[in-house]
Amino acid sequence: IIVTAGPTIEPIDPVRFISNHSSGKMGYALVDAACNKGANVTLISGPVHLKNHPESELIKISTADEMLQAFEKINLKKIDYIFMCAAVSDYSPKNKNSQKIKRENNDLKIECTSAPDIIKIIAKKTDATIIAFALETENGEKNAQKKLKNKNADFIVLNYANEEGAGFNSNTNHVYIYDKNGQSVEFKKDRKDRIAYKILDWVTN
Ligand code: C5P
Questions:
Q1: Could you read off the pLDDT of 183-198 as tens digits, one per residue?
Q2: 0.90 exceeded by the pTM?
Q3: Using CA atoms, how far apart are residues 68 and 61, in angstroms rounded to an integer?
Q4: Is residue 166 over pLDDT 90?
Q5: Ligand 1 contact via 123 beta carbon (within 6 Å)
Q6: Could you tell me if the CB of 196 is within 6 A of ligand 1?
Q7: Which one, of 98, 96, 101, lies nearest residue 113 by Cα?
């Protein structure tokens, strides 16, 4: 199986970037659970402060483009499950300044382009079951269902960024899983390591 985890960071100049608060905890917990259950796991991870399970293969990336390149090097025909847990940037700065941008007395505009939607691209190249993740602040179910369809994923795991004890950086999570056949399940607030086993069991059964 492949698990993606953590944030991506999209450079503005040599010292600044656009990123998000993803800690990687949910993805790394999924890797631990999958390794403990005997799966052969490749982890594609953005920069985080976590240790990967010794039995997993770690591919380190920083940008959305690098994550896509990492996928392109893997024979996706051999993969059974892809957990897209990473908080991949939706936008990246159009031009990376080669030198540090200097302070001026006017506003700074950073033009961004759409980053590659990795799930959409890989969904066309694999028969693996794809599990997308949606971190929302409002209209969670509606947004998650839309992404499930739009990204051609088999499952989508929804959690809320603005809920106490869930989402980014928390050691616990509270998730809803929707699938393309209209089934859904809720896993109430629990430690991320336990939620990881519940997600794995739900999508593999
Ligand atoms: O559209 P949004 O970023 O909310 O979608 C979240 C899901 O899509 C996650 O599973 C994430 O890993 C994936 N994603 C992606 N490529 C992007 C952005 C998000 O595969 N550029």
A1: 999 999 999 999 999 9
A2: yes
A3: 9
A4: no
A5: no
A6: no
A7: 96
CA distance 177 to 162: 18
* Identity at 10, one-letter amino acid code: E
Supply the pLDDT for residue 185. 98
Question: Cα of 165 to ligand 1 centre, how many Å?
Answer: 22
Q: How confident is the model at residue 169 (pLDDT cuts 50, 70, 90)?
A: confident
User: How far is the centre of ligand 1, averaged over its atoms, from the C-alpha of 132 (Å)?
Assistant: 7
Q: Which residues make beta-bridge pairs with 191?
A: 172
Residue 170, pLDDT above cutoff 90: no
Pairing status of strand 184-191 against strand 112-114: unpaired
| pLDDT for the residue 32 | 98
Atom of ligand 1 nearest to the CA of 4: 12
Is there a contact between 156 and 142 (Cβ–Cβ < 8 Å)? Answer: no
Spatial separation of the C-alpha atoms in residues 1 and 82, rounded to whole Å = 6
| Mean pLDDT rounded to a whole number for the chain | 96
Of the residues 118, 129, 155, 178, which should be mutated to test ligand 1's pocket, given the most ligand atoms within 8 Å of the CB? 118
Token digits of residue 141:
């179910």
